[in-house]
């Protein structure tokens, strides 16, 4: 993608790149020096991947409603792309639940706004 740049891609293709970045930074990229990241149980790996896939699938649904990919990429929930590895912060069941709630709280208002706008135009 370095030759053309992501701007030349369709919104769906750009969201796939964002999703791949979330998988890389939120699930695969871990630090051996970090006490939280130095070991990851299979259960935690599964949960992290499920959270990342939830973000990806909800974002894809929003793209179909007409939300610009730039708006989705700039959301605070996507902060893991900026290096904070946000999904990896969800280590306990409480942290996981809080992150799931944060995902819902981020995407639900956008979904309602664009669903309502699409419904009034139909």
Could you explain the architecture of this structure?
This protein is mainly alpha-helical and 122 residues long. It has one domain: Bovine Mitochondrial F1-ATPase, ATP Synthase Beta Chain, Chain D, domain3. The protein has helices at 11-28, 42-65, 69-73, 93-121. α1 runs antiparallel to α2 (42-65) and α2 (42-65) runs parallel beside α4 (93-121). It is flat and about 45 Å long. Residues 81-85 have low confidence and may be disordered.
In brief, what are we looking at here?
This protein is mainly α and 122 residues long. It has one domain: Bovine Mitochondrial F1-atpase, Atp Synthase Beta Chain, Chain D, domain 3 (Bovine Mitochondrial F1-ATPase, ATP Synthase Beta Chain, Chain D, domain3, Orthogonal Bundle), CATH 1.10.1140.10.
Instruction: Give the number of helices.
Output: 4
What's the CATH H-level superfamily name? Bovine Mitochondrial F1-atpase, Atp Synthase Beta Chain, Chain D, domain 3
- What is the CATH topology assignment? Bovine Mitochondrial F1-ATPase, ATP Synthase Beta Chain, Chain D, domain3
Spans with pLDDT under 50 lasting ≥5 residues? 81-85
> Averaging pLDDT over every residue, what do you get?
83
Please describe the structure with a list of short key phrases separated by commas or semicolons.
single chain, Bovine Mitochondrial F1-ATPase, ATP Synthase Beta Chain, Chain D, domain3, 122 residues, mainly alpha, 4 helices
């Amino acid at each position: 993608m370095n030759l053309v740049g992501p701007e030349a891609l369709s919104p769906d293709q750009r969201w796939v790149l964002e999703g791949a970045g979330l998988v890389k930074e939120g699930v695969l990229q871990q630090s051996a020096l970090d006490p939280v990241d130095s070991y990851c149980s299979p259960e935690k790996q599964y949960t992290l991947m499920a959270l990342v896939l939830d973000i990806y699938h909800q974002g894809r649904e929003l793209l179909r409603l007409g939300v610009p990919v730039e708006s989705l990429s700039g959301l605070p929930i996507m902060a893991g792309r900026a290096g904070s590895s946000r999904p990896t912060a969800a280590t306990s069941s409480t942290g996981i639940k809080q992150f799931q709630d944060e995902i819902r709280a981020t995407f639900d208002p956008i979904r309602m706004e664009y669903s309502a706008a699409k419904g009034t135009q139909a």
